[in-house]
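Known limitations

Structure tokens in this collection are predictions and should be treated as such. Users comparing against experimental data should check residue numbering before alignment. To illustrate the layout, the record for Extracellular solute-binding protein is reproduced below. The input appears on top and the generated tokens appear beneath it.
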Amino acid sequence: MLYERGAKALRGARIAAIAAATGLSILAGATSAAADTVVKWLHLELDPNYIAIWRKIADQYEAKHPGVKIEMQFLANEAFKAKLPTLLQSKDAPDFFYSWGGGVLKQQEETGTLMDLTTAMNAKDGAWLKTYNPAAIKGLTFDNKISAVPFKLGTVSFFYNKALFAKAGVDATAIKTWDDYLAAVKKIKAAGIVPIAGGGGEKWPIHFYWSYLVMRDGGQQVFTAAKTGQGNGFNDPAIVKAGEQLAELGKLDPFQPGYLGTTWPQALGVFGDGKAAMILGFENTAANQRTNAGDGKGLADDNIGRFAFPAVTGGAGLPTDTLGGLNGWAVTKKAPPEALDFLAYLTNPDNERIMAQAGMIIPVTIGSEDGVKSPLMHASAEQLAHSTWHQNFFDQDLGPSVGRVVNDISVGIVSGQMTPKDGAQQVQDAFEQDQL
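Generated tokens:
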């Protein structure tokens, strides 16, 4: 295969360039270590089917590179966020780990624990760099330093159970505005069906609602002003209004009983078991609900529909503005050259295509877009292709300190434990404290 022959030619040069960029030595022209080199890979993927795909890719790499061992390590989402800062400073730090990008990645880069990938990725006229969507590289670059290897793009949208919508007499295609959405929630609830599967126990799944409403009400200009300390900051009237709209949703009691203690995997299970009509989730929600359903099968793909987060009447934001991730793999300074070479292999067009075909990712590697086969995943990819403003998750973009408050106030507002004005003020206070 032409790609493989080219890849082999590049691999030796790439490892040599990586060694030069990291200050580590390696035998010239070698494509594997003389003795076992263990590459530690830290992830937070829950789906065993996806992990199996990664393991197969890693096994194939190991077969081609005797002496290199890829060791996969796992932490659950919240434990990952809590433990990673300490882990990065320890002798047990991974060689590379999952990153959401945004302010969290920037803060990690500023601690000096991450490897600057700029030189390695630009070696040999940027042969490695040029394999990725330029926008993905740009989104993971701070102060002209590439801080992570691109992995995938994603967007958050609503997924719904077609059978339950039909039972409630709701036409999903008619949901264009937030008022339409609230009307649908009321109608579904009146039919004796739980409208939304909510994961309030981890808080961040609820922040999708507050974030999207801020985007729809204020638009990019208001959010950019707030996070750069201009104008009224997070006390902007549009942001307060977003909180009021979230509170209005909460008053409808739209989630399943006990949602404030429900984890994200459990919420996916509620949806997959047909116990809620819809869920606001990631592009791979259709696949993940199967894994978390009680029977391990969940809803059939042809029983799942999808629609974008609705517009807000009179809002400055556009209905084509999207919220989601630009995810990558951040590399620690102690990582051996083999870690970067494996990352180049993991994210090459062939392997990203395999992951896309499995419904795992919307790829960022040029030439692998044709791997997106799932109609639902393809709809997410199309939405991203026409996005007028793609905003990284607020809790990641604003950094860990402010991000935690965003998650907290989102749950506080929707559950009626906090007023929208107090929520906006708390985010503003956290932002100002973070600037000190």
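For this record: The chain has 18 helices and 13 strands. The mean pLDDT is 91. Please report discrepancies through the issue tracker.
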